[in-house]
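Notes, p. 3: input format for complexes.
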Amino acid sequence: MHPREQTIFALSSGRPPSAIAVVRVSGSQANQILAALAGKLPAPRLAGRRLLRDVAGRPIDDAVVLWFPGPASATGEDVAEFHVHGGRAVLSALLAAISAIPNTRAAEPGEFTRRAFENGKLDLTEAEGLDDLIHADTDRQRRQALRQLQGLLGNRARDWRERIIEASALIEAGIDFSDEGDVPAELMAPALKMIRALHGEITEVLAAQGHAERLRDGLVVAIAGPPNVGKSTLINQLARREVAIVSPHAGTTRDVIEVQLDLDGYPVTVIDTAGIRETDDPVEQEGVRRARARAADADLVLWLTGPGVDAEGRPVGTAPVWVVRNKIDLGEGAPVAEAAVDRTFAISARRGDGLAELIEALVGFAGEFFGTGEGALVTRARQRELLRQAADGLQRGLILVKDGEELVAEELRAAAYALGRLLGRVDVEDVLGAIFQKFCIGK
Ligand SMILES: Nc1nc2c(ncn2[C@@H]2O[C@H](COP(=O)(O)OP(=O)(O)OP(=O)(O)O)[C@@H](O)[C@H]2O)c(=O)[nH]1
Ligand SMILES: [K+]
Ligand SMILES: [Mg+2]
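Output follows (443 residues plus guanosine-5'-triphosphate):
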């Protein structure tokens, strides 16, 4: 039997041991597996309590089982669910009993979702939303993923694709009916009007994004500065735990230390780095090199200074730099040089003065960086790229009108093709492999 026709099974809940574990089975053997282990099948979609037994009749666990006959199931195939006690031995006995049934095998990562996709239960943008929802850490990530899972982008793309095909049909009808190759204006004019409107709608969605797709990865804020100014003290304050070693010894931090923060629903990665200075110690030199590299890649740099330390020596990058004067409990310190500085703050990382203002500013920065977000439909580079291709195709179509209707029709085909790929309708194999492999097993 082809692997695609085999019945797949997996532990779909978290890592054991857990109070309850859910094992899912999907495929034509699901019915037989359920009957073999649980005896009588429960009514569709209603929970039934059963003593599960292996093929030799030995009891496995007292369980709750569910039966979802296809096509009205998550994958579109017959699906069975076993809700068992989440111990390792229970699970290995259950999985062994299932795999003893012919034509069954352990599922690949994302394989349940892939089958759902192949059976038309969701389009590719929805599958991507599902993956994001499972991995969402913050509330804003969750809401964005849910919009995607609900098909907001997919629905727009389907509508655009249908209208492009309609416009092509008008133009191609014109090409077929004209002997001179001149498409009559009564066909061409409405087609061009549609193309212009479509181009406007797609570019509007692309423009409304801000950095919405970065909401999946988060914003990176680097704390950098000379040694001993209190960078590690600040990251500990932001994280509210001791993630980095603090000491009066200059050159304490060498590795890059990262913490993930949820700032008002925005995912923010804050990194603490080695104090930047000239040094003969090769280990510290490597730390300084990493500090410079990470600060250069960050979305925002907090350049820390302290009393008697000037604000010069900042790494040059494209990211905005905020100068944060620390240790104000010790006095005012050197005035901040204003050149090339986007904002300035005065704090005491040790006592906590000024931290609320700094955090509020970070939340504001994240809000601007990600855009208001609620309307954002594009969450991945893949989606953005294909929408751009569709918009470019439409634009070229409009430009090529003077060179002949065939060329316009060809550009429209390319635009419709890009949207088809967005939805996973065409040349899916390569894309699917890449996307579903990253899913969890059991999803
Ligand atoms: N008075 C005062 N001392 C502080 C403050 N913040 C940090 N310190 C002290 O400054 C010293 C250095 O702090 P760290 O957080 O280790 O500084 P750092 O910038 O990470 O140092 P390196 O990793 O060595 O570059 C420690 O003794 C801290 O207790 C502050 O706001 N006020
Ligand atoms: K230090
Ligand atoms: Mg440090």
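Residues 152-177 form the longest helix (26 residues).
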